[in-house]
Amino acid sequence: MLIQGAVAGVALGLGRPVFAAAPVRKLTIGVGGFTFAYLPLFVAKAAGFLVEEGLDVELVQTGSGTTAMAAMLGGSFDICGLVLSDVILAATKGQRISVFAPLMTQYASDAIISKAAADKAGLRPDMPLIERIRCLKGMTLAVSGRGSGIDKMWRYLFKIAGMDPDKDVTLTVIKLDQMYPALRAGQIDGYNTTAPANIRAIDEGLAVWVARPSQGQVPGLRDFVYTILSANPTAMKSKREELSGLARGLARANVLIHDDPAKAAAAVQKAIWSQTDLALVQHAVTDQRTAFARRMTLTQQAFDQNKDFMQAFGDEVKSVNYKDVIDSSVIDALT
């Protein structure tokens, strides 16, 4: 799916028309899917902030982060939205990708199970986190793919609860857009994902929360840089002006998400999620806004936290260093 054109923000009263003397600069950005993991990027475009920076941004949905990364490395995209841990893993294979801006700054893949499964297992919202996780024993839970962020989140939760995900539960692969229907049909007991699919299930009384890392409720994952924007080294040099304009647009989008989530939601609902009820999008943006930092940073601590998280699943990233994947010069220039 392509999102083209750039006057929606002006029409919504979210931006002001700017007639730059310089030619409009084109950027193509690939993302695995149109999810809340990339919300600041979508808001920056839908609200007209990128047009005001003289940018004509085309967003391309590839179906997975792996596909998006491969396309960027092959030259199909200038920029790619990815999970930071995937970039760290790519560095172990000699793939040079530069992370230049954060997007989601909490690991915001919140876990839910159906109300029927919760009732059967005796899971109550007032239970401590570890007890809620242990109630999932024997359940069938969805992942988007083996080794995906969703898969890692389930495995991390079971690890801190002293459980074995390969023995204590069944993790089954289901496409992201099929998880909510599968839960509703009783084909699975639960899933974890970014908003709004999980919030929709909660709002409808279909599901209950198990774990909410988006709200900083999971130990070891607080203030966790989850999704980022990246570029190959060539684009980092040749498109410096474009990346700076993009970063300024993202900075404005983060402020709008925090200060006026209803306006941010109205923009993205029209441009990205037009088939989703506006009230649900507004609820989701309001609920998730603390998962996006008002001020963008890419610190050594954020890198180390991602690396520590990944080492819970293997030692292959042990040799990767901060400067192998992080280039904070674009966002540092904003201050």
What best-fitting shape do the alpha-carbon axes yield?
globular
Distance between the termini: 34 Å
Helices, by number, come to 18
Strand content: 15-25%
The strands making up the biggest β-sheet line up spatially as 1-3-2-4-11-5
Number of strands: 11
N-to-C series of helices and strands: EHEHHEHEHEEHHEHHEHEHEEHHHHHHH
Q: Based on the structure, what is the oligomeric state of the protein chains?
A: single chain
Rounded to an integer in angstroms, the radius of gyration calculated over CA atoms is: 20 Å
Helix content: 40-55%
The assigned structural class equals alpha/beta
Mean pLDDT reading:
90
The low-confidence runs, each spanning 5 or more residues with pLDDT under 50, are 1-21
Largest sheet geometry: 6 strands, mixed
Note down, in words, how this protein is organized.
With 335 residues, the protein is an alpha/beta fold. The protein is 44% helix and 16% strand. The longest helix is centred in the last third of the chain and has 20 residues. The N terminus is likely disordered.
